[in-house]
Amino acid sequence: RQSLKIGLIPGDGIGVEVIPAAKAAIVALGSDIPKPDFVDLDAGFECFTRTGVALPEETVRVLEEECDCAIFGAVSSPTRRVVGYSSPIVGLRKRLDLYANVRPVTSVAADPNEKPDVDLVVVRENTECLYVKQEELKHTENGKEARATRLITERASRRIGQMAFDIALGRPRKHLTVIHKSNVLSVTDGLFRETVREVPTLPEVNGKYNDVQVAEQIVDSAVYRLFREPQIYDVMVAPNLYGDILSDAAAALVGSLGLVPSVNAGDKFIMGEPVHGSAPDILGLDIANPLASIRSAALMLRFLGYVKGADRIDRAVDEVIREGTVLTPDLGGKGKTSEVVEAVLKKI
Ligand code: NAD
Ligand code: MN
Questions:
Q1: Domains (ranges, CATH) in the chain?
Q2: Which residue out of 14, 256, 257, 293 has the highest number of ligand 1 atoms within 8 Å of its CB and is therefore the one to mutate?
Q3: Rounded to an integer, what distance in angstroms lies between the CA atom of residue 166 and that of residue 163?
Q4: Can you tell me the ipTM of this complex?
Q5: What is the pTM of this model?
Q6: Which PANTHER family did the record assign (predicted)?
């Protein structure tokens, strides 16, 4: 590749404050990656109130036809129902078939030669489960009744399973925990659990995953054990909603949601995205932690094969956290977003 075309979708709230940090980190890599070429793209609730559309077709078209990859900030999806609005990130994951949401949660050891206390990856199915958003409301003689469809397919469970096995295989411990609730939901979660567990026996897999050790855990006790003994986990694979909740929970173990990156990955496209939302409570104060966004840029580059560039960014972030002199208030510091970005850029 001569150049790398990167779509930037800041979205709403602090998305707008942290995406420039990801961009700056990529630019700072210089010749370690192909020359980056950024294109700004619109989406989000602010876009919806301005134009009537939360995810413009032009954004999807540019991503599909012109971009090699993208970074998404966050969107503010109202908790009340707004007619005509649907979360653009959920839409984008489906439109671009980004079927895996990979969320590494890693703490930074005080000594760079020591192992971190928390070092796990949540691999979240990204296209189905309750996020198919098929909800209906009925008025019965006993009052309102609401239902939602929870879709689990063999195809989606198999491909997220394969992604999770691949990720486990690439890590020193090679351990995978399948998260489910099939003691209660034996049909839906049962299908997820069985399909993922069968991945190593697929003919095309051909023994590739023989070294991966597989365990399973019911989701509620998985959260309990995650808080008591996070070191038992390496890679966790989960249906969409459990994966969403587990990764926010895991973020608490490493100090802040503002530290945890992700990529939305499909077979043809990669989109980085910090795990946090638009954080309206801290908007405009210049105190949003930019490190999740910066790490999302690194993770995106890593998935694209630019490991050297990704390592440089991750090392710089780790050093800034380890030194602890310039950190945002979510990590107990007094630093501004801009000062943290500057410190990271200097290290890169
Ligand atoms: P949130 O992740 O925005 O915030 C949760 C808490 O973490 C808040 O106290 C916030 O200040 C803090 N926080 C989050 N990111 C931070 C950062 N980078 N630095 C410092 N502190 C940070 O979750 P929420 O408050 O439940 O949701 C707010 C809005 O974000 C909602 O409209 C929701 O729909 C949306 N949301 C979007 C996404 C997404 O775009 N992928 C994900 C989650 C929530
Ligand atoms: Mn979430």
A1: 1-98+256-348 (3.40.718.10), 119-253 (3.40.718.10)
A2: 257
A3: 5
A4: 0.98
A5: 0.96
A6: DECARBOXYLATING DEHYDROGENASES-ISOCITRATE, ISOPROPYLMALATE, TARTRATE, HOMOISOCITRATE DEHYDROGENASE, MITOCHONDRIAL
